[in-house]
Amino acid sequence: MSKPAKAATLKPRLPRGLIDRGPAEIAATERMLQTIRESFELYGFEAVETPFIEYTEALGKFLPDLDRPNEGVFSFQDDDEAWLSLRYDLTAPLARYVAEHFDAVPKPYRSYRAGYVFRNEKPGPGRFRQFMQFDADIVGAPSVAADAEICMMAADTLERVGIARGDYVVKVNNRKVLDGVMEAIGLGGDDQAGRRLTVLRAIDKLDRLGVDGVRLLLGPGRRDESGDFTRGAGLSDEAIDRIIRYVSFQAAPTEGGDRLAFWEKFFGGWVEVVGGSETGRQGIAELHAILRLCEAAGYGHERVRADPSVVRGLEYYTGPVYEAELTFPVVGEDGQTVRFGSVAGGGRYDGLVGRFRAEPVPATGFSIGVSRLFSALQIVKSPIVAGAAAPGPVVVLVLDREEIAAYQALVARLRDAGIRSELYLGAAGLKAQMKYADRRGAPAVVIQGSDERARGEVQIKDLIEGARAAEAIASNAEWKAARPAQFSVPEGELVPRMREVLERHFAG
């Protein structure tokens, strides 16, 4: 007689571009997020939350690719055949929220949001399909003073989470300047929007690909290490040279020098690149104003500076754009020393809320890449993410399964007193239960056999003290004689005596 066929089992697989997180990382991330919240609230921002799903039309033309609804985003149709999408970022949903509640929210409206966003893109190293962002935005403030305040808050937030001054810089540019450069090379007008976006994306890769890589993307195109080919913008050599000259401007004012003269000379070079473009000249003036405001508040060139290579990839930016870049060196997997790069970015998007309303609504804001910032804090060993993991629960062991109700009563007594605890729910014996408590990171266990129950007692075993004592005990016989860190108490004293154990190890 043949054996019955074994039922097929599913292979546990995580989809590409997604990650699982354990309790230690979650706890450390929450500490980081709380510090960011406190920084944003210090500047008067308040929390708001939007759902993961929006109507695709609410994301609209600001999606990364425009040919079909699910290009770049995860989209589906509901029962009414309306297209819905998982949010691509937190800014477009905010624009919808503000427009929908326009009369109820104060203007200017300062808000922050934290949550997951989703990208239907090719995953790779450091590129995920689901990741968390933390945004702060000011809606209804047309002055570049709002942009300056966002830059200052970005600098303050990085320092509060543990990035030392000198290990970061907030780089600022202006899309109007970029538009001026585009006009100067013949890419102005609505009919050139696609090529302009290709150019902006090429410039945005300057830090990663260098001048030669960007030159290829501005011209015929570039083939990467995997063999994938990216079509270029097809610009002339003269146009490419103008853009490369523009993004290569780098300078810093000297201490004690004439700073006004420096800025006039620095931005004078930009004026030459934008030529006669009034849009470009307006952008340069706005950029100059932002830097003056930041410097007046104590945020000098070492913290906030102009940088023409800052582009930001999305097309909804209309004015100042900025990136918070970490400048300390990191050794990569190939052994090469590189900069960590950008952990936050944003800019002014005056047209986004206005899509839903008749009148224009100015807005500006920035977004922190939570995972990237978390990785950076691990590298610099910030106390926020390098702090000790929270202790596990006290575990009440089960020696007599017929008395499960009695053990449950012990657990309830601990929980009623606010002591994190759990009842062992497996089927193993005492030795395996002790191993389970170790794996849970339990600071202590509660043991009650029939003899202890008859006497109205329990035993508390301090696992932390026991591990320390075990290092000093040479033999098994000595261990049994000492019974380190294990003692009996009346059931009525379980809570106060357990508190003593926990406070000994985790006071403060």
Question: What does this entry show, briefly?
Answer:
This protein is of the alpha+beta class and 508 residues long.
Low-confidence stretches: 64-69
CATH superfamily of the largest domain: Bira Bifunctional Protein, Domain 2
CATH class of the largest domain: Alpha Beta
- Please name the CATH topology of the largest domain: BirA Bifunctional Protein, domain 2
Principal-axes shape call: elongated
State the separation between the terminal residues, measured CA to CA.
68 Å
> What oligomeric state do these chains adopt?
single chain
How big a fraction of the residues is strand? 15-25%
| Domain count | 3
Helix content: 40-55%
Tally of DSSP β-strands:
18
What is the architecture of the largest domain at the second tier of CATH? Answer: 2-Layer Sandwich
Rg is: 30 Å
| Largest sheet data | 8 strands, mixed
Mean pLDDT comes to 87
State the helix count: 18
Global structural class:
alpha+beta
Strand sequence of the main sheet, in spatial order? 1-5-6-13-12-11-7-10
Subunit structure: Homodimer.
Family: Belongs to the class-II aminoacyl-tRNA synthetase family.
Protein name: Histidine--tRNA ligase
Pfam families: HGTP_anticodon (PF03129), tRNA-synt_His (PF13393)
